[in-house]
Design a protein that fits this description.
The complex is a heterodimer of chains A (271) and B (123). By secondary structure, chain A is an alpha/beta fold. Chain A has eleven helices and ten strands. The radius of gyration of chain A is 19 Å and the shape is globular. The longest helix of chain B has 13 residues. Chains A and B meet through helix 8 and helix 9 of A and helix 4, strand 5 and helix 5 of B.
């Protein structure tokens, strides 16, 4: 891969996915794109990129973009947010909603571990939830929907009683049980696009997404998260993700790392 | 600062070595036993905080060790993490019913052990 190829790749990721591909990732790019080139029947990564630059085919472009995104995820990643969600937020929000129904969005859900973790917390608590999970990557969404996870994946963050309760062995993997699968709706969506429809959510999990975003696109994404969140809703980011300088619409909640609520100035502007 | 100990019980020297490196990385002092009887003798003199326990071992298997440990005075204190190649749900349930606090399926890695230690409140 030439430096020019990498520069173009950076531009492609930033413009289509808002993803910041840092300069030290050139070897990672080679490594991640090799299987894509094989799958798409090119002789090499260089040949695939040359073809893409000469004739931008959307499907190939997205295959390249998807391979470069950061798909890292765990069940109950960082743990505390999932306890806060199940023990504190669900009962509090459920009390003031019709039929106790709480609407949750896992934005940037990758292969689904976050959404299933939220569903397990809600079902174990007997809560009435509607969980929507979206990701930019179609491959990630396909895997999430299939609900098949390796022994390594289920052991990262999932307590053993939850594994026994909500999964069943399927050859050498673990399959999400139908009751759990039914609690989550997966869809492909790009956080850069205008949301289709005007559905609002009570709780949004958008964790380990913003830190990988291009500075120029973060603001727009945060604004659209704000528009999709009800006034008394809660936004979860990763424990090391900050909104300082990006927006005055959210403030962090003391003692609950990664949890944000709307500031008074952001409330009901659209009303 | 109190020394926190983890007893690794496995008949494979290689598994003990791999697990030791990970568990030491989590801030524990590690001791080893090659079967359940050896582990039980160790616990009779000093209860570890954590036991990482294989299932199939010569002399005394992990499940027998666990049941005997839980009958001992103070034997309810150690957090016991089974760590075995058994992956059938009924075997996992059997281990939990016998008093295991968590269950690790081999093969495992550092992230998995750290995650399981966190699950029992050890890290």
């Amino acid at each position: 891969m030439t430096q020019d190829d990498f520069d173009r790749l950076q531009t492609l990721l930033a413009s289509r996915a808002g993803f910041r591909l840092t300069r030290d990732r050139i070897h990672l790019a080679e490594h991640r794109l090799a299987p894509v080139a094989r799958r798409e029947s090119f002789d090499s990564v260089d040949a695939m990129l040359a073809s893409l630059w000469a004739k931008p085919v959307a499907s190939l472009g997205w295959a390249v973009i998807e391979a470069m995104l950061n798909a890292e995820t765990w069940f109950r990643r960082d743990r505390a947010p999932f306890d806060t969600f199940a023990r504190e937020l669900l009962p509090a929000i459920g009390r003031v909603r019709p039929e106790g129904r709480v609407r949750v969005w896992s934005a940037g859900c990758s292969s689904g571990q976050e959404a299933y973790s939220l569903a397990i917390g809600a079902l174990d608590a007997g809560a009435n939830v509607e969980i929507t999970a979206t990701d930019l990557s179609q491959r990630a969404i396909d895997k999430a929907r299939a609900g098949l996870f390796s022994g390594f994946e289920v052991q990262r963050g999932l307590p053993t009683p939850s594994l026994l309760r909500w999964f069943q062995p399927s050859e050498d993997q673990w399959a999400v049980r139908p009751e759990l699968a039914a609690a989550v709706r997966f869809a492909r969506a790009n956080l850069l696009d205008e949301p289709a429809g005007d559905q609002k959510f009570d709780v949004i999990f958008c964790r380990h997404v913003l830190n990988d975003m291009d500075a120029a696109r973060r603001g727009g994404v945060i604004e659209s998260l704000e528009r999709r969140l009800v006034d008394d809703g809660c936004l979860f980011l990763g424990p090391d993700e900050r909104l300082d300088g990006d927006t005055v619409a959210f403030r962090p909640v003391t003692g609950r790392r990664g949890l944000f609520v709307k500031t008074p100035s952001a409330l009901s502007r659209a009303a | 600062m109190d020394v926190r100990t983890c007893l690794i019980v496995d008949d494979s020297r290689i598994i003990r070595k791999v697990a030791r490196r990970i568990v030491e990385g989590l801030g524990f002092e590690v001791d080893e036993a090659a079967d359940g009887a050896e582990a039980l003798a160790y616990c009779a003199s000093a209860m570890p905080e954590i036991v990482l326990l294989d299932w199939n071992m010569p002399v005394m298997d992990g499940l027998t060790f666990l049941r005997r440990l839980r009958e001992q005075t103070g034997g309810d204190r150690p957090k016991v993490l089974f760590c075995t190649i058994e992956t059938a749900p009924e075997r996992i349930a059997e281990a939990l019913a016998a008093g295991a606090d968590e269950y690790v399926m081999k093969p495992f890695d550092g992230e998995i052990l750290q995650s399981k230690f966190a699950e029992v409140g050890a890290v």
